[in-house]
Structure formats: structure tokens, C-alpha cells
Design a protein that fits this description.
Elements (H helix, E strand, L loop, with lengths): L11 H10 L13 E6 L8 E6 L9 E7 L9 E6 L8 E6 L9 E7 L24 E8 L13 E2 L13 E4 L12 E3 L44 H5 L11 E12 L12 E5 L14 E5 L11 E11 L2 E14 L8 E2 L17 E4 L3 E5 L3 H4 L2 E4 L6 H4 L5 H12 L1 E4 L30 E3 L1 E8 L2 E8 L2 E3 L15
Parallel strand pairs: 7-8, 13-15, 16-17, 20-23
Antiparallel strand pairs: 1-2, 1-9, 2-5, 3-4, 3-6, 6-7, 9-10, 11-12, 11-14, 12-13, 14-15, 17-22, 18-19, 18-21, 19-20, 21-24, 22-23
């Protein structure tokens, strides 16, 4: 997560002590016994659950156990719902217990850190359900923290108790929380900061971090959100800087933040869009275009599961520049913000065939493009399986059907053919797509057919690169003309 992160203290007491406790690792010298340092019990979607312990570095804490105590009324309050054994901390003093989804209750619970536990999973420690332990199968309770969701009759068995809106941030109790600084313990709820419920900080999740929350940092130093990236903040790079003037980005592996306009919506969701490629294409506004015509102004954002965007949206994206099989894209996306809607689209680049080199297409990679000339439907071998059609400036012949194999003429014709064609795709990655899409944008069926030798004009979409070919992912239908209709009957060849 590359949101601006700074230290933020809750309450005047923490502010007053900040000078002796920052950075948080400086508190480690005072930590004699381990502390429950961070936990995650309930998150968006499938729970990402864990309990983190903070103690002395490289120390064996196998004599300690974490217990989850049931607190929801009517479900066996006071019983041991989870037993988590500990091990040895790392060089920074952290021990992480990663748990399976639903290992911890999504309700009122108490986490106890105890020493020399002799009980068992399922044991009833509060036999009369009055909120006080009647059975204590341990030597001592070293640490505790409780979450109370506010159910009538719910009970907790340790302090502090983190209830609904305990921190003024939400009407819900936290699904997870972090001590701040690491190991800091005054016994008060203000020692704990709720974690972002939507998993900001966890790889693969964008999250919805807000001021006053903590990131999810399992096995690492706890971090708080002080600055949340917003639309209009300075970008790190323009897209033409990311694309560069070569075949590969000069910024591969670099984290970037951009703001640009969606010119192709290919997300996999239920909303109307241009296809299903798990992402979308964005392009700089005309005002932000650079003077170098060899640098593309567009780029693909691979962001499965991100917020829904639409063509014309201004979006802010943060992620990492990647070369995915020679397609420059932004992936490992940590942030997608919709800044505005209904914006004027950047000017589509006009491209004509033939090109002087296949590398000429690179300067349009990720951009909105249109081919104004009439192009012939010359090949559709992959149309039924992959939705692909090859368009050419004229009818093309196999070079070896015209010239001797291995001849210079055959080689020259092969090159000329490659420079005079482009693949029109269908914006989908699945095989045998149903329905098939006609190049005019409609459904391909018996009432809307095409034939080899027919033409399409004003092919419009975004320039993509996949499976070794530059291709157009269409954003609108082309102007189709049936110029090679099927004869009503075979030609008379004059046979008797």
C-alpha cells in the first residue's frame, strides 16, 4: 500500500508521550512479556484473519497461548472458541499466527494471551454465564483485548473493550485493530486503532482507508493512515513518461499514481462495458499530451475487483508499472478513485495502413485509435474461438502461392502483408464467446452476417498488444459494407 503514511496518535495522553515512543520500535526495550499487537477477525468478503504478537526479538513464546472466548449471548458465552499456540518471534519482535477464514467469530469476542494453558478447545470457563471466569486453566493472563458488537446480553472477559464507534469512526465495532505504537499498553481502548475493514495494506486489496484507521500489517510494524490519497493530488508521472519512446517502459517495477480519462471499459462486472479483460484503458487529456509523437498517451490498468468505472470517467490510479508479455500496463493496483464523470474523451489517434514498421503501432499502445480507411475482412479463422478478425488494405495472398518459397520476392510480400494488416478483437479473453460479435458491434447471427472480402470503415477502439500481435479492442461498432455477397447460384462455367 503506498498511501501516504504517518504516525497518528489518539488522545492527549498518547500525544504527550509521543516523543519517547517514536518510532514504535523504540518501545521494544520496555516489552518484557508479549502483547497482542494486532488482530483481524472480520473483513470484507472472505475474512482475512490473523493474530500478531509483539515481544522481544528472536524469543521463544511457546509457553503462551492465545484464546478466543465466545461473547455472543445465547451461543455459549465464556467457552473457548479458538486456541492459538505461539512460537518464536522474528528479529523485529513479531510473531504472526495466520488463521483460516472464520476461525475467529464475527461477533463479540475476547482475545486472551495466557501463560501455561492447560485447558482445551470448547471448554466452558464461565459456567454460570455471568461474565466472570469460574474456570481458569492457566497460570496468568498476560494480555487481553475484547470486541463487543453491542448485542443484548453479550459479554466480554478482558479489557480494553472495543465497542461500536469506540473511536468515533464507525457505528460498527472493529473487525480488527492494531496497537499503536507497537506493544504500547495503558490498558485503555485508545491504545488500539481499528484496521481498515476493506483490507487496505493487504496485497491485492485496494481498501477504503480513512483518517484515524490503521492499515492491515500482519507480521510487520503497525502503521496508521494520516493522509489519504485524493483526486487532484499531484501525480507521480504522466502516461507518456510511463510508456516512454521504446518498446518497453523505462519505469517497469516503479509504483506510479496517474489521473486520466477512461477510454475503454473492459472490466468483468455486470455493468454495460466494452468487454471483459479485468481492467480498463485510460488516456491523458489532450491538454496533458507531450510533444513527443513516439510516446503513447494511453495505458491499460489491470485491476480485477476494483470499483466500476465507465468511459468518460476521470480516474486516479495507483499501481506498479509492468510489462505483461510486452504490453505496458499498471498492475498490483492499490487505489482506483472516480474523480469525475462525463468528461470529453481525448482525441482518438487516426491510424492508416500500411505502416512502415510493426513497431509503429507501439506509439499508440493503450490509446484510443480509429482507422478511417475501408479495410477488408481477410481472415476469420479465429473468429469463432477467440472473436478475432484480420483486416487488411486489400486482398492478401500467401507469399509462397505467388513466389518461389525462400525467394526474396516471397519474403518481401510476407513483410508487406504484415505491415498492411491489423487484428480486430472482441474485448474478451474467453474462448468460444457467446454471443459472437459482428464487426459492426451487433450480435453475429443469421440476420447479421459478414463474409470474407466485405469491408469495415472507421474501426474504433483501443490499441492493445496480446499474444504477439497488436490488435484493436473495439469500443464501438465499425461501418460495415457487404461488398462481396454470396452469389445466388454458382457461376456457369460452361460445362456440358
Amino acid at each position: 500500500m503506498t498511501i501516504g503514511l504517518h504516525k497518528l496518535f489518539a488522545g492527549a495522553l498518547i500525544l504527550a508521550l509521543a516523543w519517547v515512543l517514536m518510532p514504535s520500535q523504540s518501545a521494544s526495550a520496555a516489552v518484557v512479556e508479549p502483547k497482542i499487537n494486532e488482530f483481524s477477525a472480520s473483513t470484507t468478503g472472505t475474512d482475512v484473519e490473523y493474530i500478531e504478537i509483539y515481544g522481544a526479538p528472536n524469543t521463544d513464546y511457546s509457553a503462551y497461548t492465545i484464546l478466543e472466548i465466545e461473547g455472543d449471548s445465547g451461543t455459549g458465552v465464556g467457552t473457548v472458541d479458538e486456541v492459538v499456540s505461539l512460537g518464536t518471534t522474528d528479529a523485529d519482535g513479531f510473531y504472526l499466527a495466520s488463521l483460516s477464514a472464520n476461525a475467529l467469530e464475527n461477533g463479540t469476542i475476547t482475545l486472551l494471551l495466557v501463560q501455561n494453558f492447560t485447558g482445551a478447545f470448547g471448554g466452558d470457563l464461565d459456567t454460570n454465564d455471568d461474565g466472570t471466569f469460574d474456570v481458569m486453566p492457566w497460570d496468568t493472563i498476560v494480555d487481553s483485548v475484547a470486541v463487543n458488537v453491542g448485542g443484548i446480553g453479550d459479554l466480554t472477559y478482558g479489557v480494553p473493550e472495543l465497542g461500536p464507534n469506540y473511536d468515533g469512526l464507525s457505528s460498527f465495532a472493529p473487525g480488527g485493530a492494531s496497537r499503536y505504537p507497537d506493544g504500547f499498553d495503558t490498558g485503555a481502548a485508545t491504545d488500539w486503532v481499528r484496521n481498515d475493514f476493506d483490507l487496505a495494506g493487504i496485497s491485492g486489496f485496494t481498501g477504503t482507508p480513512v483518517l484515524g484507521e490503521a492499515l492491515n500489517t500482519p507480521g510487520a510494524m503497525n502503521e496508521l493512515v494520516q493522509f489519504v490519497e485524493a483526486c487532484g493530488d499531484p501525480v507521480t508521472h504522466f502516461i507518456h513518461d510511463i510508456q516512454g519512446s521504446g518498446l518497453a517502459s523505462p519505469l517497469t517495477g516503479t509504483e506510479v499514481a496517474i489521473e486520466a480519462i477512461v477510454v475503454g471499459d473492459f472490466q468483468n462486472n455486470a455493468q454495460p462495458d466494452n468487454g471483459e479483460l479485468n481492467g480498463f484503458y485510460v488516456q491523458e487529456e489532450d491538454a496533458d499530451v507531450d510533444a513527443d509523437t513516439s510516446t503513447s498517451e494511453g495505458i491499460f490498468v489491470f485491476a480485477p475487483g476494483s470499483i466500476d468505472v465507465s468511459v468518460g470517467d476521470m480516474v486516479r490510479v495507483r499501481g506498479t508499472v509492468t510489462e505483461f508479455f510486452d504490453l505496458t500496463e499498471i498492475s498490483s493496483v492499490s487505489l482506483v478513485l472516480q474523480c469525475s464523470t462525463g468528461n470529453a474523451l481525448p482525441t482518438a489517434a487516426s491510424v492508416t495502413l500500411p505502416v512502415s514498421s510493426l513497431d509503429d503501432f507501439e506509439k499508440y499502445e493503450g490509446m484510443a485509435v480509429t482507422f478511417p480507411q475501408a479495410l477488408y475482412i481477410s481472415e476469420y479463422f479465429n473468429f469463432d474461438r477467440f472473436g478475432e478478425i484480420v483486416l487488411t488494405t486489400d486482398r492478401q495472398f500467401q507469399p509462397t502461392a505467388v513466389y518461389e518459397p525462400g525467394s526474396t520476392d516471397a519474403s518481401n510480400l510476407a513483410l508487406a502483408n504484415s505491415l498492411s494488416r491489423i487484428t480486430l478483437d472482441d474485448g474478451r479473453s474467453n474462448q468460444n464467446p457467446d454471443p459472437a460479435i459482428h464487426p459492426n458491434g451487433g450480435i453475429f447471427d443469421l440476420t447479421n452476417l459478414f463474409r470474407g472480402g466485405d469491408t469495415v470503415q472507421n474501426v474504433t477502439g483501443v490499441m492493445d498488444f496480446a499474444f504477439g500481435l497488436y490488435r484493436i479492442q473495439p469500443t464501438q461498432g465499425a461501418n460495415y459494407a457487404s461488398v462481396n455477397p454470396r452469389p445466388a447460384q454458382p457461376e456457369d462455367v460452361g460445362a456440358p
